[in-house]
Amino acid sequence: MHATIRKADEHDVNELSLLFNLYRIFYKQNSDLESAKRFLLERILKKESIIFIAISENKIVGFTQLYPLFSSLSMKRTWQLNDLYILEENRGYGISKQLIDAAKQLAKETNAAGIMLETEKTNIIGNKLYPSCDFLPYDKNNFYWWQNSEESF
After folding, report:
1. What is the dihedral of CA 80, 82, 87, 93, to 10 degrees?
2. Domains of the chain, earliest start first
C-alpha cells in the first residue's frame, strides 16, 4: 500500500482529529474529540506545528506532528517529532517510514540541525522503527521532566 503524504491544513482537522483522538487513547488519555479538534486547529492556524498526513483511498490513514525547537549550541532550528500514528488496519505497509521521510525532508528544507523524538521503552514497534529510519539513541544527556501539579499527564 502506498500513501500520499502532504501537509495538513485547517480543512483536514475534522478527519485528522479522529486519528489524533485514537493516538491519545493509545497513550492512555481520555477520549476528547472536541478538544482534539480545537487543539489541532489552533496548532495549524497559529503555525505552531507541522502536521504531515498520509492519505490512502481518499482518507487520512496516518499522521505525524512536528514542533519547532531551537538549539543554542548549534544555533539552528531543530524539530521534535512528537506524534506518529497509523490506523491499525493500515500498519505494516511502510506508511510510518513515508511520514518520517517527509519529516526528514522538512528538516533539510529548513536547514535544521536534526529531529529529536522520544518514545516509551515499552513501544516495541517504535523502538524498532526509529533505528530502521536512521535515528540513533542519544544517551549523552539525562532527560528530566517537571510536571505542573495541576496537570495530569
Report:
1. 30
2. 4-132 (3.40.630.30)
